Structure formats: structure tokens, C-alpha cells
Amino acid sequence: MITSKVDESLALQAKELVMQANDIVITAHVSPDGDAVGSTLAMCHYLKSLGKKATVVLPTAFPAFFKWMPGARDVIIFKDRRREAITALNQADLIIAQDYNEVKRLGEEGMPNVVRATKCKKVMIDHHLNPELFADVTISYPLMSSTCELLYRVLQIWNGGQLVQKDVAECIYTGMMTDTGSFSYNSNDPDIYYIVADLIKAGIDKDEIHRNVFNNYTADRYKMMGYALTKMEIIPEYGASIITMSRAELNKFNYRKGDTEGFVNMPLSIKGVCFSAFLKEEDNLIKVSLRSQGEFPCNIVASENFNGGGHLNASGGEAHGEQLEDVAQRLRDALPRYKEYFDRELAKLTD
Q1: Which of 13, 47, 148, 208 is deepest in the core (most CB within 10 A)?
Q2: At 230, phi and psi to the nearest 5?
Q3: pTM score, two decimals?
């Protein structure tokens, strides 16, 4: 049995707004990951099954290894198709915000301003901390493993407990799988596996989904991974690891969006490492990805140093107008402030 963890009255309020709307746009955060793409496409398929016009508008492109997902090729990328995206947002009578907790997470290409300026109703479905109260209905559960898990629970309420259709299930499973590192972290809730069982009953092939996502990389990506490991810096007194990659280094390996997915997790396989940072130079900013083990709060590191946030063991942020090495040094200088957390986790790792 899957336990009830979503306020049914909130879910039904959101459903009422959906039923009143005819033209719905679903949005997610900048640099969309599997949970963002999976949750928005799942919602899109579900809404279309209700006879609604539904469109996914994402701020920037997503990795190529998600393009197999049903409906992925119909997504409008704001950065690439700005006029079409603005038209869709302005014509919508409902915007559904998924997998982001505040409008600024829509990026810096103008999409946040467009969304704020729209007059239509809005619904938020998200699992990040500290939601901005910009929506008419806010369904926020930070303890959920993923927005896709939360969406599954919402759709169960909307759907009277019936199984979702296969295309919805495929997208939901993808988001749950990727946001838990293939169920290797933030995934100790028995409900997750009851949900996976239901998704399999709906017709998904979870092994094929895993292959589609994780067995779709280029040889250049693996060469890049090897190079990244040669640059890995271990700071043993804190059980910390830092990897940096400049734009020039990425380009040496014919970098494509998504190629560095998972790099931040690799140092956590090393005995005595409880905190990992991957810093990557992108256009006009340094992207910071943080991961941790146990109860080390990498979301606090992200919020206090990189204007970011996220979850206890998986979070990130950004640095604008700084050089890559300066950002890395700022992180090194910040580590002593978290010595209490480091000491506690290192004691567990050495027991």
C-alpha cells in the first residue's frame, strides 16, 4: 500500500483549475534534468488524455539522452524559440510550474519576467525547500524523492487511484530514477518501490528506460570523465572533493549538454569522502553541483555560497562574473565553516 502523503484538498483544488482551463503550459527549471523533463512530459500526456491543449515550455535545452521520451521532440525551448514560447505562455489560461520552487529558477533569458507578467492561474508541483508563493495552488513536499514521485501521487488523486497510461508512467519513472541516482540515494522510502511496481503494471520496461538514459553516451564523454578524474582534488581533513572543468577543457572532448551528468557523484565512491563538488564553466557563469553522503547538508553550502539550494544530499548553485579557479578557491575557503558537519560524517565513515 502506498501511504497518503499529499493533501487531497490541495490536489483537488489544482485539479479544479485544470478542469477549468483549456490551454495549459507546463514549465520547469533552467538546465532541465530527468526529473524536470520527466515530470513536465508526464503532466503533458495526462492533460492531453483529458482533451486539454497542453504544451511544455522549458527555459533551455535538455540532454540528448532524454529525447527518446514520448513527446520530448514537441517541447518548446525558450532560449531557441523565444517568440513561440512567449506566445504560448501569454495565451495560456493555466501555467503549471514543476520541479522549481521560485520563478527565478526559470533562468536569465527573460522567461521569469514573462511568467510573472502573465495573468492566468498558476499551480506549483515541486519537491524543493522554501517555495516562493507565486502560484494560486502550491503543492510542495520537500521530503519527496523527486517531483515525479510527487506528481504520481497527485495524479493518483486526480485519477481516482487508477493506473496512469504508459506514456505518463515512462516519464514518471525516468524522473524518479534519475533524481535518486538509480535509487541509490534519497530512496529509502518503501512507497517508492510500490510506485515503481504500479508503473511497471502500467506497461513500462524499466530496464529499457535505464538503457535509454545511461547507455547513450559518446566515447568522447568517457574520455572526458577520465580527464575529470585526473583533475580530482581530495581534501582529506574535510572528506571533500572538488573537480573543475573550464569551457576550453570541455570543448576538447566535443562537449554536449548532459555529458558531465554524474561526474559529481564519482568521488563519493572513495572511502573517506562525504562531500563532492563539480564546478563547470558555462556561458557567462560557473555551474556548481554538490553532492554529499549521510547528513552532510550540501544544500546549506549551496545557499550560503552560490545563491543556490536543493536537497540535503544533492544541490547546486551558480556564480556569475567570476573565474573558475576563484570560485573553486571560494569553496575551499568556505569548508572550515562546516567542520562540525564534516567531523560528524567522517566519524561515521571511519567507524
Answers
A1: 148
A2: -70, -20
A3: 0.90
